[in-house]
Design brief:
By secondary structure, the protein is of the alpha/beta class. The protein folds into 2 domains: about 160 residues, D-Maltodextrin-Binding Protein, domain 2 (3-Layer(aba) Sandwich); about 130 residues, 3-Layer(aba) Sandwich (D-Maltodextrin-Binding Protein, domain 2), CATH 3.40.190. The protein contains 11 helices and 10 strands. Strands 1, 2, 3, 4, 5, 6, 7, 8, 9 and 10 form a 10-stranded mixed beta sheet that branches. The longest helix has 19 residues.
Length: about 350
């Protein structure tokens, strides 16, 4: 049985802008060398701030440690917006704990770059990436992607009664039955909300109406699929695709719906911090993160999407090229963050 309702026509992904004024050209790609491995092993640790699901992040860390047993990965997992607040507070206080940062809100990386908190560093495998999925100045790149999807519990809702569009979720029959994550915690949801506010026929007027549907509000985008699987709500508005797929793979009664209007594509990004306490381990880790081996792990184990053309798609998963998606320019999204938080609190509460 297919895990999905239907494929869609692709919409081109527009992610990163052209060469930024005031920045030099990106540095040459940096391969993993014996000298880098030796220097990283001497440092012994890499501290990884990430917003990806903890289970997936720990699988990535274990695979790295198996490959480079002299370097331990310290995973610090939280929502993207919480990580942004933490790094801002640390750097404003001249505290430098983090080596590599990964965020589901790529606008965070744009901000770190503008503040001078990242170094330009280009892992060798990024040569395989589409140009519009990496910073033209070499400060960060898209290490993963997912989709913000609708879903329903198949034990509580029959397929013929299930929502097929965002418009369907405004039906009074769904009042008090929807679970939704929060953009002030989750970068995934911040990006999805931004994209929905720009989508034709949706926008803030739609979200204002949705806010009247007595939504169950949770924090992380990882949570709605779990609430759905437990039957705490029969419908989710914006859970992330990869957690939903992981639960489906484990036998959870979940069906994913790609809304007819389009589905928000959430592109995560990663970079090396300028004042990383373990700079060589940071470079080794991000080289691994963008390697085909690690990207395949994120796809196979974590059901994430990759821009590496050498990665094999899981059997039965709808290819990204078959899904109509909404996209975001992180530079423009960065400018809209305060408005999103303000209006969201107005329509959905804090």
């Amino acid at each position: 049985m297919p895990r999905f309702l239907r494929p869609f026509v692709v919409v081109p992904v527009l992610f990163l802008a052209s060469l930024s004024p005031g920045y030099a050209a990106a540095p040459a790609p940096s391969p993993t060398t014996p000298a880098l491995v030796a220097a990283a092993t001497k440092e012994g640790t890499v501290i990884f701030y990430t917003s990806m699901d903890l289970q997936v992040a720990e699988s990535l860390a274990k695979a790295f440690q198996d490959k480079y047993p002299g370097v331990t990965v310290q995973v610090e997992r939280s929502g993207a917006e919480r990580i942004y607040q933490r790094i801002t507070q640390e750097y404003d206080s001249n505290i430098h704990n983090v080596d590599v940062v990964d965020s589901s809100d790529a606008a965070n990386l744009v901000d770190y770059k503008h503040r001078g908190w990242l170094i330009p560093y280009v892992p060798a495998d990024l040569a395989k990436w589409p140009a519009n999925q990496k910073d033209p100045d070499g400060y960060f790149a898209a290490n993963r992607a997912t989709l913000s999807v609708i879903g329903y519990n198949t034990k509580l809702i029959q397929p013929g009664d299930a929502p097929k569009s965002y418009a369907d979720l405004l039906d009074p029959k769904w009042k008090g039955k929807i679970v939704k994550a929060h953009p002030s915690y989750s970068g995934n949801i911040m990006t999805a909300t931004y994209e929905l506010t720009k989508a034709p026929g949706l926008g803030w007027p739609y979200l204002q109406k949705l806010g009247q549907q007595q939504i169950m509000q949770v924090q992380s985008s990882t949570e709605p699929p779990k609430k759905l699987a437990l039957g705490e709500r029969p419908v989710m508005f914006d859970g992330n695709e990869y957690n939903a797929l992981m639960l489906i793979d484990a036998g959870a009664p979940i069906k994913i719906v790609y809304p007819v209007e389009g589905t928000p594509l959430i592109t995560g990004a990663a970079g090396v911090m300028k004042d990383a306490p373990h700079p060589n381990a940071a470079r080794l880790f991000i080289n691994y993160l963008f390697s085909t081996e690690a990207q395949q792990l994120l796809v196979t184990t974590g059901e994430l999407r990759s821009f590496n053309p050498g990665v094999k798609e899981p059997a039965g998963r709808v290819p990204l090229s078959k899904i109509k998606v909404f996209t975001a320019d992180p530079t423009e999204q960065e400018k809209a963050v305060d408005e999103i938080k303000q209006k969201y609190a107005e329509y959905f509460g804090t």
